[in-house]
Amino acid sequence: MTVRVQTEDFDHARELASMRLAGRGDVGAIVSFVGLVRDVNEGDTVNALTLEHYPGMTEKALQAIEDEAKKRWNILESLIIHRVGTLQPQDQIVLVMVSSAHRGEAFKACEFMMDYLKTQAPFWKKEATSQGARWVEAKASDDEASQRWK
Amino acid sequence: MNIKVLYFARIKESVNYSSEEMALPKGVVTVSLLKQYLASRGEAWEKIFTGKQIVRAAINHTLVSDDAEIKGGDEVAFFPPVTGG
Q1: Is A15 strand, coil or helix?
Q2: Which among B13, B52, B83 is the top mutation candidate for probing chain A, defined by the most A β-carbons within 10 Å of its own β-carbon?
């Protein structure tokens, strides 16, 4: 169960190898999700995205999401990396990676963790667009995605 | 009885404050009462704390609802709905 909040990029292949070779032979499945910066939002070109967060609360919130996933599913290891600072289109923003004995638990836990992260972890995006800078608004669809795990 | 209050994202920019220490005003015992108190500080504050846009709150790093109690020594944070991921 690991959580990292960082400005620097991450290496998916290295994180996968690290989870795969963590020294336990009971891992049968690893599922991961990588979120990227898109170059368009609400019809406008996005030139850059800046992520602000609440240091101290962010780490606790992400840890709580991992703990909740572990309670619900039989997962073996999990990793959340979330970047902050200014990013460019196609940059990686977030990585969620989960291992379990069988694929079903890892798929569900990974999706759950992303859905919860979207609505519970204190990050805020500000995008620099062709129309000027603006804060990204929270989406009702993210709330709905999170609600279905209740 | 002092508390620390933090502001993030759009709210931080609107009120032009990122954090402050303040004496807990008399009678302010919940998040909603603190919001009311902050709204009385001027136009920008009123717009944020009584406006249509949702303002979320956390006490000591845990998301709370508006009826949550505030005590001396607490760290209270105000921010818009989150948009990470």
Answers
A1: helix
A2: B83
